[in-house]
Design brief:
- Strands 6, 7, 8, 9 and 10 form a five-stranded antiparallel sheet that branches. A four-stranded antiparallel sheet has the order 1-25-24-23, with no helix packed on it. A four-stranded antiparallel sheet has the order 2-3-4-5, with no helix packed on it.
- The chain starts with 42 loop residues before the first strand and ends with a strand.
- It is globular and about 50 Å long.
- The chain is mainly β and 367 residues long.
- Helix content is 0%, strand content 43%.
- It has one domain: Neuraminidase (6 Propeller).
Length: 367
């Protein structure tokens, strides 16, 4: 049986530096030179973060680019913006058909080059549902355009609400597209295998259903989720997800195809054999997790209400440890990603003048 260590026991771990963000000046980003070895893991943040870009309006998802820049989604403006390595920000396009409402709007982004077309995928709240669209990216880094004339619908029919919309999308190491869908405030839907809500979904890049999905003919990959917003894969290809709890426990889960994670029957580590317990859990005041990234054998988790980044490692026996960084220094943190230079990039989400920041990474002591 997997050994479980609750994060609540580990809150006393060393916290990273914190402080108030001054009016930011962007620091140029240099991509990792070709052939350079990444920092050996596990890794930890080192020093104070630097601002990559500022002036973002409620950003939700960041997709770093190989040349040192990034694409960023803005939830309420429905704009995709390109951040250049020098910190300048330009508008790429407005995604059509987005209907922002509370926590809904333009949410997750993902990119795919299929050899003929470079696609930008977007999870959006439309008039009648949440859905995943894809649109061709035109041009090249530093001058991307987005063909929004006829977005292709990859996946639709995910019920929407003003909150609990999920919204993270990412391509796994198997080439499939994974989509997190919240319960849209309809709790029973999370246990209903016929509903797309309260699930992690898996489809092919064109939206077709992979033959090896756990429920034949269905995009449902796992069920029993309340509002998952972070997904990532470890070095061995294992999938992990972060999930908002209700009032008691937020969760960090090892994801297995066809598994049931318990919501709304259980929340957190319940010890019920019918459901999969999280590997780590937090009080919502300490987390309220959104984006998740795996870098150098370490997971990094963006915390909104917790206003910090959690660093997490899982040993070969399945025991996990979590350490907070940057507590209260940057407000709400919405997304994290590995930057093109191998550093940790993260987005603030303070409903104002938000920023994309970069934190250097170094080997953990004894790592």
């Amino acid at each position: 049986m997997t050994t479980i260590v609750a994060a609540s026991v580990l809150l006393a771990g060393c916290a990273g530096p914190s402080g108030t963000v001054e009016p930011p000046t962007a620091a140029p980003v240099t991509p990792t030179p070709e052939g350079t070895e990444p920092v050996a893991g596990p890794v930890v943040p080192e020093g104070e973060p630097a601002v990559v870009a500022s002036g973002l309006a409620i950003p939700w998802s960041v997709v770093p680019l190989a040349g040192g820049g990034a694409l960023v989604s803005e939830r309420e403006t429905a704009l995709v913006k390109e951040v250049a390595p020098d910190g300048s920000v330009r508008e790429v396009a407005e995604v059509p058909g987005v209907v922002p409402d509370g926590e809904a709007g333009l949410l997750g982004l993902a990119m795919l080059d299929d050899g003929g077309t470079t696609w930008l995928y977007a999870y959006v709240t439309a008039a009648d549902d949440n859905r995943v669209l894809r649109m061709p990216l035109t041009g090249e880094e530093g001058g991307y355009g987005l063909d929004t004339s006829a977005p292709e619908v990859v996946l639709s029919g995910i019920a929407k609400a003003s909150n609990h919309d999920g919204g993270r999308i990412a391509f796994g190491p198997d080439g499939a597209l994974y989509v997190t869908a919240g319960d849209a405030n309809d709790r029973p839907s999370a246990q209903d295998p016929e509903s797309l809500n309260g699930k992690i979904l898996r489809v092919a890049p064109d939206g077709s259903i992979p033959a090896d999905n756990p429920f034949p003919g269905s995009p449902v990959y796992t069920l029993g989720h309340r509002n998952p917003q972070g997904i990532a894969w470890d070095a061995d290809g294992g999938m992990w997800a972060a999930e908002f709890g209700q009032d008691t426990w937020d969760e960090f889960n090892r994801i297995e195809p066809g598994a049931n994670y318990g919501w709304p029957v259980v929340e957190g580590q319940a010890g019920d054999a019918d459901y999969v317990d999280p590997v780590l859990q937090w009080s919502p005041a300490d987390a309220s997790p959104s984006g998740l990234a795996s870098i150098g054998g370490t997971f990094f988790l963006a915390a909104l209400r917790g206003q910090r980044i959690w660093s997490m490692t899982v040993d070969d026996a399945g025991a996990a440890q979590a350490t907070p960084y940057f507590e209260g220094g940057y407000g709400r943190i919405r997304d994290v990603a590995e930057g093109p230079d191998g550093s940790l990039w993260f987005l603030t989400n303070n409903t104002g003048d938000d920023a994309l920041l970069r934190a250097a990474l170094a080997p953990a002591s004894g790592g």
